[in-house]
Structures are given as C-alpha cells and as structure tokens.
Input
Amino acid sequence: MRYFELAYLIFTVGYLLEFFYTLLKLRRAAVEMLKDGWVWIRFCSMIASLVSLIVWYVYTPFLANFNQTTDFMHPNSVEDFAGWILLYSRCSAIAALTIFLRSLEFLAQSKPRVMLLLRTVKMGTSHVVIYLIYIFAVFCGFVAFAQNYFAAYSSNFVT
Output
C-alpha cells in the first residue's frame, strides 16, 4: 500500500512541476492557456491531491495510536482530528473527481465521439445550472415548510 501512496505523490509532484514549467515556458501564451477550463481542472486536481497527501502524511502517525493514548478523552483534540479528517476526505474526493475528468480530457483528444459528448455537455451546462437552481429553491421551500409546520412535533428541534 505504501508503494501506491509513493507513486501517487511522485506523479502529483511531477504533474505540478510540469504544469508550472509549461506556464513559464509559454509566458506569452500562458494567458490564453489559462482561459482553457481543462487547465484549471488539472491545477485543482494537483492542489487537491497535494493537500490530501500532506494531511494524510502529517496526521497518520497521530491517528495510529490515537485510541491507545488519553488524547481521545479530550474533546478539543477529537474535534481537531475530525476537522483534519474532514479536510482530507473533501480534498481526496475533489482529487478523485478531477482525476476522472482528466481522463475524459485524454479520451476527448483521442476519440471523436467523446469530444462530441463533451461539446454537448458544454452546450447544455447553462440550462442544467438553471435547472439545479430551480430545484434548490424548491427544496429550500420544502425545508422551510417542514420546519414551520412540523417543528413542534420533533422532540429534537431547538431554536
């Protein structure tokens, strides 16, 4: 398992160095390059991967013997570890999503059907975002309705 973590770290650092080398090499075209959405997906992937790896390597030694010491009895240390674990899970989820999106970018460059699919998704993105905003507003209405009318029946409801 350590070999996979080491390989993940090496590839992430290598991609990050290659990214910055490309930006420095193409100074004049860097502004045009930064307008491309795939560049930002690659950059977010590398940053999320680095943050998740750093959190993993920094807090793994503490978590290995956390329940064997008296640290787990102190709420502050438990909340601190919970916050770092939450950060790790969010960053690793973003890294996994963006790594998957990067594979779509690779496939789009090699397969015309994937390029057509991505172009179709790009064309429909604004309509999907508007639809999700409507759905979010409707669900917020349902939550407000339920909170106003059924809060008195919930024993755990506190204002």
Summary: The radius of gyration is 22 Å. The chain has a mean pLDDT of 82. The chain has five helices and no strands.
